[in-house]
């Protein structure tokens, strides 16, 4: 697979984008990148007919994937010489899945984000402030700092006293970082790398030596993998669009599960116009497209830009599907 056939739309300090970037690097998958601004608008993505605003976005051929949880599943399924990073045994896969749920769905990112130092230059930028006000929308206000500190400390404590307590190098005792390590490390790595985000007297190598040693090992493993893989080629939005539209689809078209609860209730049929968007953050930016496929795990719809159409894949979990067109911003 040519490097340009996989494109990661991201910006460097997105903690979610790092999950996918680390995966690509650690598995040694050649790819290209299309660097995006941290705030809307993102015309490089709009040219694909996509209004969804969260980063990262991943294209594999002419298929475009939203949400890091789905993106990692699709990358795991790639048929390439380098083996997948997923666990092989059912109990290990359960740990991997539970770590993903803990770090992505249980509020860890929200607690961590509320601990960002208020004097960070980006947080003082009026454009960024306005953009994030739209992003978070009507979501409840963040927990007070002391509550967020307690919750983040509980995650550090959990890893320190359970999965890392026996001195293992990696979460699943693998020879090198696995997907379970990526699922577990990303919010802690993000916080540990921001000066003054976490109070030294309550966090740091002296308090959680096993966790911080693990984070350092992970950094070193990623650095070695980067040297072996080389830097990704950077594409402009126009170049990325051309590559995607000239590519073949990564997956077959698929169909609509007529027994699905939502399909039965709403009467959805293949080819219907639908509106798709996340149910939590960034929910005001929704996509309108033609329903291509729907399973228990994902919804696939076609969007059309000025120069052609792509298939967009979104997970069912955390996304809402509406039949017909809803107003989009």
From TrEMBL:
Domain GST N-terminal: 8-69
CDD domains: GST_C_family
Annotated organism of origin: Pochonia chlamydosporia 170
InterPro entries noted in UniProt: DUF7962, Glutathione-S-Trfase_C_sf, Glutathione_S-Trfase_N, Thioredoxin-like_sf
Superkingdom: Eukaryota
Name this polypeptide is given: Glutathione S-transferase
Pfam (any one): GST_N_3
Signal peptide, first to last residue: none
Ranges for domain DUF7962: 112-227
GO molecular function, one term: transferase activity
């Amino acid at each position: 697979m040519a490097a340009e056939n996989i494109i990661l739309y991201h910006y460097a300090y997105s903690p979610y984008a790092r999950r996918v970037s680390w995966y690509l690097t650690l598995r040694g998958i050649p790819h290209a990148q299309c660097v995006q601004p941290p705030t809307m608008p993102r015309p490089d993505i709009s040219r694909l007919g996509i209004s969804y605003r969260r980063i990262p976005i991943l294209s594999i051929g002419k298929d475009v994937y939203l949400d890091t949880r789905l993106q990692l599943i699709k990358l795991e399924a790639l048929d390439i010489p380098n083996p997948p990073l997923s666990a092989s045994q059912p109990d290990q896969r359960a740990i991997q899945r539970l770590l993903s749920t803990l770090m992505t769905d249980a509020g860890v990112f929200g607690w961590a984000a509320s601990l960002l130092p208020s004097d960070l230059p980006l947080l003082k930028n009026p454009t960024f402030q306005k953009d994030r006000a739209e992003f978070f929308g009507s979501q409840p206000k963040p927990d007070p700092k002391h509550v967020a500190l307690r919750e983040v400390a509980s995650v550090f404590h959990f890893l320190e006293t359970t999965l890392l307590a026996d001195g293992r190098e990696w979460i699943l005792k693998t020879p090198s970082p696995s997907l379970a390590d990526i699922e577990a490390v990303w919010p802690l790595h993000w916080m540990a790398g921001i000066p003054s985000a976490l109070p030294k007297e309550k966090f740091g190598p002296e308090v959680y030596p096993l966790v911080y040693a693990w984070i350092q090992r992970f950094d070193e493993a990623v650095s070695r993998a980067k040297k072996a893989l080389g830097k990704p080629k950077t594409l402009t939005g126009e170049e990325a669009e051309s590559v995607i539209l000239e590519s073949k689809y990564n997956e077959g078209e698929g169909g609509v599960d007529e027994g699905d609860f939502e399909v039965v209730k709403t009467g959805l049929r293949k080819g219907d116009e639908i509106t798709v968007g996340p149910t939590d953050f960034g929910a005001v930016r929704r996509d309108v497209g033609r329903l291509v496929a729907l399973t228990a795990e994902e919804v696939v719809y076609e969007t059309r830009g000025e120069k052609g159409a792509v298939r967009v894949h979104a997970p069912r979990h955390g996304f809402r599907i509406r039949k017909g067109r809803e107003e989009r911003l």
